[in-house]
Amino acid sequence: MKPISQFLRSVFSVGSNRKSPALDTRFKIKFFFSLIMSLFALQSCGDPAEIPDELLDGKVIFDPSVMTPENFLTSLKNPNPSPTEAAKPVFILCHGYSATTFEWQEFVDWSGITNNYYTSQVLLGGHGRTYEEFKSSNWKDWQQAIIDEYEGLLAAGYTNLHLVGSSTSGALILESIASGYFKGKTAPKSILLVDPIVLPSDKILPLIGLLGPLIGYTEAENTDGEKRYWYTYRPQKTLQELQEVIKKVRKDLQEGIVLPNQSKLMVYKSTHDSSADPASAVLIYKGVSPSNQVKIELVDSKLHVFTRLNFREEQISNEDKALQIKTFQEMVSLALSK
Length: 338
What we know:
Strand order of the largest sheet: 2-1-3-4-8-10
CATH topology: Rossmann fold
Number of helices: 13
Largest sheet: 6 strands, parallel
């Protein structure tokens, strides 16, 4: 089955090479007939007929944090920190839509065994499990996992917290600020977002509410390595949830999002991102205040979530590797300076 963007482009490309901008009646009839027939042809596409066991979507492979959360979450790994430990930075690492904790594993591996800070890898709600569990989740479920770990760390006594969000988690974190979640709580010292999606690069996503029920799901073109850590089949319901949360965040940004007093926001944004439009960074910069607590860094990369290099289809260059390490170093430097 084609991804929704490919399907829609194949339909909307009918007559796209016509020189005249005006569409005559015959072409309009042909166009809409083609669209309607294509949609009816896809009505039988509800869920995948069969999901192989080697995919994350299946019933065999799960994110390892599902089985052993204490190996991934600092609140469970060290629930009774000493005063010295409680004052050390904790990076709360949050992945994007359809991904898993693997998205930030390279930062954890790069950090190694360090005594300077802790890492806490959050698995978004509904993710890292079966296709059915992913399909039944909503964006508030995704976000709740971030809040649960934040609450767990606060309850344990940790005070030096740093939220790190890639892609959709960037939107989930911004929404939590806009909704007032941090009011009356110990706020994060820094909020570090990598390629946050506020405006999608694929302009077909806003149509998912109309066409999604007819299509059922889309199929991602994952590499063999990615198939164990990212969903291959993406239910249209979850795409609608994605569209809903980023649409809400755009509205929040228009109305203005005010950072907690002690929080610094750092946004890293790829300039050639096929998933999150670079204009997302502009919307964040204009919509978040105070401006002296916000910094945007545009990076020359063609990768979405450029901090993850493993299992990419794209050829990884020395520049990509250097950019990843530079970003990791800046994240740590910022946290240790607090």
